[in-house]
Amino acid sequence: MDRSTDHRSQPGARPGPSRRTDAERNRTRILDTARTVLEQDPDASMQSIAKLTGIGQGTLYRNFPNREALVLAVHRRDVQDLIDAAPRLAAGSPPLVALRRWLDELGSYGRIKHGLAGALNSTTRERLATEGYDPVVDAMGTLLRACQQAGEVRADVTADDLLLLVGFLWRISPDENFETRSSHLLDLVMDALRRPAT
């Protein structure tokens, strides 16, 4: 092949599909590893995250120029996963079951948030809380309204009310008892939401 016709060899040529796929795969691996590492050690360094991911520091810094950018990306992906879970659960389960399963996912997010909180300064934490609030409430509201339309949940509860009711998820210590305690408290919340028998 004439090299003049091979765009892969031209300076400034756009990366091909395989290179983009590799870059996306690296980014996903970095976020997965960072999420686990920062949950366990909020002070973990970029170097340790790169090493555990199995990539060079150059690759890490090309994706995330500094530590705060990496932690922000981890938080934002977790929030997006939570938002995306709502329509998926609604499509595959009865309304009340979908809501409860989504609240379980919210609980998992709350546990992870405990670990990551120490890796962010207070200003960044407030910014994340603000930007994530409306999308999370909207996702919760979609599931809650489906339950209300099915006549399974009392009509006087809003998504904002429900978010306040499950606020304990941010306060339970993320220890070995977290899942048991959060599950029990979520059962109580679900019982309180049910439409009174007539």
Automatic annotation (TrEMBL):
Residues 24-82 form the HTH tetR-type domain. Keywords: DNA-binding, Transcription, Transcription regulation. The keyword Transcription regulation applies. Residues 45-64 bind DNA. GO terms for molecular function: DNA-binding transcription factor activity; transcription cis-regulatory region binding. Gene3D superfamilies: Tetracycline Repressor, domain 2. SUPFAM superfamilies: Homeodomain-like, Tetracyclin repressor-like, C-terminal domain. Residues 1-28 are annotated as: Disordered. The keyword tRNA processing does not apply. PROSITE patterns: HTH_TETR_2. Residues 19-28 have a biased composition (Basic and acidic residues). It holds the Pfam family TetR_N. InterPro entries: Homeodomain-like_sf, HTH-type_TetR-like_transc_reg, HTH_TetR, Tet_transcr_reg_TetR-rel_C_sf, TetR_SbtR-like_C. This is TetR/AcrR family transcriptional regulator.
